[in-house]
Structure formats: C-alpha cells, structure tokens
Amino acid sequence: QHYMKIAEASPLPIIIYNVPSRTACNVTAETILRLAHASDKFIAVKEASGNLVQAMKIMKHRPPGFLVLSGDDQLTLPLIGAGADGVISVIANAFPFEFSSMVRNALEGDFAAARHYNNLLLDVHPWLYVDGNPPGIKAALELLGFCKKDVRLPQVPVSETTYNALKKEMEALALKRNG
To answer: Would you name the residues annotated as active-site residues?
Structure first.
C-alpha cells in the first residue's frame, strides 16, 4: 500500500529501489512484480539484492517496458547476461570509460569485450566498499584529483589501509590501461 500511495501522489515515474544493504529489507520479486503490473508509474527497479534468481524472476515476469537495472556494480555483467537493461552505478563515477565500455559491450552482446573491461575493474571493486559507500568512491575520486574524500557524519572517510590499497589497485589499473 505504501508504494501505491506514492505512485498515486507522484507526478513523476518511479524506480523501485531494492538495495537491502542500505535499507535492511529486501523487496521481494513478488512485491516488485505486483507493483510493476499494478501501475505504469513504476518504470524500473534498481535491483541490488545480490540474488540473481530473484532478478531473473523479475525479468521473466515483468510487464512490457518495465526495466531491470543493476544496482550492484560487481553483478552488472551477469545481470545483463541474464537480461537486465542497464545499471545505476557507483564505480562509473571514477571509472566511466571502463565501466560504460563493459556495459555497452554486454548490452550489444559482445561478452568477450565486456569481460575484458569487467576484469580491469575487478580488483578495484572491493576497496570501494570495504569502508562503505560513499566513502570508498569519494576516496577514489580524491585519488583522481576530482574532490576531497571528506564525507558527512555518521560516515567517516576510508581508513588509511583502505586508502593505500585502493591507491595501489588504481595504479595497477592505470598500468593496464597504458601498457
């Protein structure tokens, strides 16, 4: 009922946000599908449950035009392989070329090229999340010279250990890019 009240009140289309690591609650495939079929205001789901079977169930039973978007960068490639339509990404803020190349190639069916770009980012991924999001991506953006790694309480910047490990992986990625 909560979601339907929002749909009735909103003049805008709605993307259902299913990120249990942030909300401490998984929106089940059944609930997502019930909403998607009940109102055309629901245009997509940001699916980050980490459950590929749940995502595939949504993709199998969704109404026409309802998008399934990965909300977990590390699972984007397998989700697109299973039929997802795209991604709402964190890592693309720091590595737009590699990540968008992976997504574009996967959506076009060139999974060899998609795996290449995915593998470039594979060792960077964990360090972006070990101390939480957004502290990890802010640290990466600081290392790239775009902003400071500062975050607002209750979050804190990444630890020195994480920062140094992230820096090392980003330097390795730069060598792979250029060499």
So the answer is: 17, 46
